[in-house]
Specification:
Blueprint lengths: L2 E9 L4 H13 L4 E5 L3 E3 L10 E10 L3 H14 L14 E7 L4 E2 L4 E2 L8 H10 L12 H4 L8 H8 L4 E5 L3 H7 L6 E4 L3 H4 L11 H14 L5 E4 L9 H13 L5 E3 L7 H9 L4 E6 L5 H4 L9 H17 L3 E5 L3 H10 L4 E4 L7 E4 L1 H4 L17 H18 L15
Parallel strand pairs: 8-9, 8-15, 9-10, 10-11, 11-12, 12-13, 13-14, 14-15
Antiparallel strand pairs: 1-4, 1-5, 2-4, 3-4, 6-7
Helix pairs in contact: 6-8, 9-10, 12-13
The protein binds 3-methyl-2-oxobutanoic acid.
The site of 3-methyl-2-oxobutanoic acid (KIV) has 11 residues, from strand 13.
Length: 419
């Protein structure tokens, strides 16, 4: 029987390209037929950071080896190629991972297929997308084609995505645990938004949120996502009082929370601020339409740019923000046609929320897309999950198990001390 596998090769020692080539030759000598190979990608080391970057390559191979046999073959090839024992996640002459098998999943004491970090590693997702674009990831039900996107690692990548016609998927996050989960997805960037006032603090609006709150939450998110592009929201009155104050606040988000960029709400009045932040080296994402920090003046969270005149004003402000140096713009709760026109008019990407499908990307509040609050379902939110139901059921089952004495079981308890 012939099976197909995807192998991912990596090397970060000496002549990395030569190690990859040698590994391929050795695999071919061990009854593996290379059906297709990907381009070689340069990737940053994970976990142990002070080492050379890796060269990685994906291979679609055919062979009669079953998974554990193939594992033996890959280990032998690593050895023959000169791999030396070093610390875990340290430098490697050659590393060969088996990440996918045509027969589905496989688990033994030595090997798990699909590899548990497949989705967490953008290069593996990209190799999967290149080699088997139509293949559906069994954990998420999503095709690799969708997940095999280049990660946003620098501010320039926003523009590159728009130019390449790739939509940007942005999501908010406020804590370490959820951020770790985001790190196992292909979402493009993370906003530590002042919406934490609503969803974390239970406030009626975002006005009470402080700069310290954003810093606290952004630090937690950064710990979980060392390589992600994280945007920190400038909260109410942390930038409205003047350019110097805005620089100091934005500077804190960069220095203390290690954000890659800041976001501020508002248009014409803040052009000088956007320019000054850029001059200090701080990338700025703009935010127009429904700007929740103006909720008292708007008289609620209402659709904006409803009249032709208001729409024209919004387009003028959006253009002015781009000219002042914003690298992207959030457009919240505006008619779809206005948002689409804005996206067409601007060079920078427009990321919509409640702004229709014609923008260059979308942002949603994480708890909204997860359906953590079943009662909060404005028109523009889609619940991609119904986690509230799962949370309630899990806590109810736990409580019942405690009350009836079935939790913890002997296996979940520690044994008596030995005499
Ligand atoms: O604070 C936030 O979460 C936001 C997004 C909704 C764009 O500003």
């Amino acid at each position: 029987m012939t099976y197909r596998y995807i192998l991912v090769l990596g090397s970060n020692c000496a002549d990395r390209g030569a190690y990859l080539k040698q590994a391929i030759r050795l695999l071919e000598n061990n009854r593996l037929k290379i059906l297709r190979s990907t381009a070689v990608l340069k990737t940053a080391p994970i976990l142990v950071r002070n080492q050379q970057s890796f060269l990685n390559q994906g291979l679609l191979v055919a062979t009669d080896h079953r998974p554990d046999e193939l594992l033996g073959v890959t280990r032998l090839c690593e050895q023959q190629a000169g791999r030396r024992q070093r610390i875990r996640y340290g430098p490697r002459e050659i590393d060969i991972d088996i990440v996918w098998w045509s027969e589905g999943s496989y688990t033994s004491s030595e090997l798990t297929i699909p590899h548990k970090y497949n989705r967490a590693r953008h290069w593996v997702r990209r190799f999967m997308a290149e080699l088997l674009p139509q293949e559906v990831d069994n954990e998420t039900g999503v095709q690799y084609m969708s997940m095999g996107v280049k990660p946003i690692q620098r501010v320039q990548h926003f523009l590159a995505k728009k130019q390449a016609g790739e939509k940007i998927a942005m999501v908010t996050c406020y804590d370490y645990t959820f951020a770790r989960l985001l790190g196992r997805t292909s979402v493009d960037c993370v906003l530590v938004g002042d919406s934490l006032g609503n969803v974390i603090q239970g406030e009626r609006n975002t006005l009470p949120v402080t700069l310290e709150d954003i810093i606290y939450h952004a630090r937690a998110v950064r710990r979980a996502l060392p390589d992600a592009f994280i945007i920190g929201d400038l909260p109410f009155l942390s930038y409205q009082t003047g350019v110097a104050g805005a620089i100091a606040s934005a500077g804190q988000l960069i220095k203390e929370a290690h954000c890659d960029a800041v976001k501020l709400e508002g248009g014409m009045y803040f052009l000088e601020t956007v320019q000054a932040l850029n001059e200090c080296g701080i990338p700025v994402m703009g935010h127009l339409g429904l700007t929740p920090q103006w909720v008292l003046r708007f008289g609620g969270h209402r659709l904006q740019a409803k009249t032709r005149e208001a729409a024209q004003r919004l387009l003028t402000e959006a253009q002015a923000l781009e000219n002042a140096g914003c690298f992207a713009l959030v457009l919240e709760m505006v008619p779809a046609s206005v948002a689409a026109q804005c996206s067409k008019q601007l060079t920078i990407p427009v990321i919509g929320i409640g702004a229709g499908a014609g923008t260059d990307g979308q942002v949603l509040v994480l708890s909204d897309l997860l359906g953590l609050d079943p009662d909060f379902k404005p028109r523009f939110v889609r619940h991609f999950a119904r986690l509230s139901e799962q949370v309630i059921a899990a806590v109810e089952q736990y409580s019942a198990a405690v009350r009836e004495g079935s939790f913890p079981s002997p296996e979940e308890s520690f044994q008596n001390p030995v005499e």
